[in-house]
Specification:
This protein has 156 residues and is α+β, with helices and mostly antiparallel strands. The chain is built from 6 helices and 10 strands. Strands 1, 2, 3, 4, 5 and 6 form a 6-stranded antiparallel beta sheet that branches. Strands 8-7-9-10 form a 4-stranded mixed beta sheet.
Length: 156
């Protein structure tokens, strides 16, 4: 497990800034301690420094994971967020979309959401902006950006 390089940090923060903007600083400087990002097997983990010091006693090949997996780097050095990062991104999200209960199940199975399935949307949301998708009961379901839309459309 190693710290991220400058390039890896820049790519990861640019991706996360699509969702939470300037609130990125709130993830690192938390009132309950200092947290950092570490890379292990092309996956980025969000872990407290206290737990990171305890994990230093475990060899790298025996370590499976540590902390919360925020995403992974692809072979082309792009960063993809994982669903496990949603609990940390959702409270700070700038743009949010709420889905009606009828369209929620269809969305969770991987289908697109029609305009009639939208319950609410944050004002001034740009067309290709990263958004956090919520149910009408304010439960975060997923994060969505133009990369996912392109990936899903190309697989058809």
């Amino acid at each position: 497990m190693r710290p991220l390089t400058e390039e890896e940090t820049r790519v990861m923060f640019e991706k996360m800034a699509k969702y939470i903007g300037e609130n990125l600083q709130l993830l690192v400087d938390r009132p309950d301690g200092t947290y950092c990002f570490r890379l292990h097997n092309d996956r980025v983990y969000y872990v407290s420094e206290k737990i990171l010091k305890l994990a230093a006693n475990i060899s790298g090949d025996k370590l499976v994971s540590l902390g919360t997996c925020f995403g992974k780097f692809t072979k082309t050095h792009k960063f993809r967020l994982h669903i496990t990062a949603l609990d940390y991104l959702a409270p700070y999200a700038k743009y949010k979309v709420w889905i009606k209960p009828g369209a929620e199940q269809s969305f969770l199975y991987g289908n697109h959401v029609l305009k009639s399935g939208l319950g609410r949307i944050t004002e001034n949301t740009a067309q290709y902006q990263g958004v956090v998708v919520y149910s009408m009961a304010d439960i975060p379901l997923d994060e969505w950006d133009s990369d996912k839309q392109w990936r899903d459309a190309s697989s058809l």
